Amino acid sequence: MAGNVAVEQFPFSWEGTDNRGQKVRGRTVAASEAAVRAQLRREGVVPVRIRKQSSLFRKSGKVTPADIALFSRQLATMLQAGIPLVQAFDIVGSGHENPAMQKLIMSIKGDLESGTALAEALGKHPLHFDDLFVNLVTAGEQAGALDTLLDKIATYKEKTEAIKKKIKKALFYPAAVMVVAIIVSAILLIFVIPQFESLFKGFGADLPAFTRMVIDLSVFLRSQGWLVGIAVGGGIGTYMYMRKRSKKLREAEDRLMLKLPIIGNILEKAAIARFARTLSTMFSAGVPLVEALQSVAGATGNIVFERAVLRMRDEVATGQRLQRAMENTGLFPNMVIQMVAVGEESGSLDEMSAKVADFFEADVDNAVDSMSSLLEPLIMAILGVLVGGLVVAMYLPIFKMGAVI
Fold first, then answer.
1. Which terminus of the chain is more exposed, N or C, with fewer CB under 10 A?
2. Is the pTM for the entire model greater than 0.85?
3. Pair 276, 296: CB distance under 8 Å
4. Helical pair 322-329 and 334-346, crossing angle rounded to 10 deg
5. How many whole angstroms separate alpha carbon 164 and alpha carbon 271?
6. How does strand 23-30 pair with strand 46-52?
């Protein structure tokens, strides 16, 4: 059976008729067209046309965290409805629009059909199913409550994806506007300013210092702009290359991001929300606290918080209370620490952590919305200074000439 799993599979689209003579169509993943025909006949479908999708389309897909969140919810819903696990995988996989996700689901389905446990089958794809996902599935299989645990996983994935989108929105909006401002300024300097420069040559008078500076900048960009582009592109490429290979650089970046005004506060709240949501999900599934903290560390999304949680894990493993370990990091607000302390004392750490997560997720939502409202006038002011400054610089000589006349 292991050899069958290793066979490369391909996406196929098919059309046929079911037992009632009605036309049906769909997509599936299999090793060959013959395998598709055999599978359809087992399902009571007489295939009329089967087409293999092109390799270009097949490879263009990419499994995203959003795909994994949707898959978790679909699988949890089907298991709660009483659909057998293998059949649920078949339904979810054949109906998925992303070829890469479809192939992944069908690969796991093949492992399940060969007798492999779900947690083990998922563990073969660590890029898409992390330790937290696999540990929760393991706990669900052992407790005979896989549908319940998958529902918790689905809720967890949905909430973490929602907060990631909020963070991306917070970072993308000002960055996108600034990029547009730089592009517009570059276009003005390269294509518009030279027209004014040729006009000013006929004035026969000295230009204002501000106008002279803008013209010199325009001349520099036209003659040496390609060097600037190469330098900026090379710098960004070098930084991205070093960032992937240097954990110290990523930690320095995460520390810097946490200290930024407005954005740093949002990132800190988001990290705390992910910490609390992951801890609640893991602890409610019966995962031991020390083991849960290992998964929680990787889910915070910030190396500063990740290292702090790993230190907390070490302290808790030696008998320290979680409340005290959190205090020692100096990263968590007093409200979070007190909520965790109440949860520890009352035996409801999962419920208290969930309340903390709900609070900070809502806080992140409000902070992002507020930031957007605050940044809009600031960004407009920056755009006005950049673009308006160039316009004013070009009209200063004309105003000066008008005053002389």
1. C
2. no
3. no
4. 170
5. 10
6. unpaired
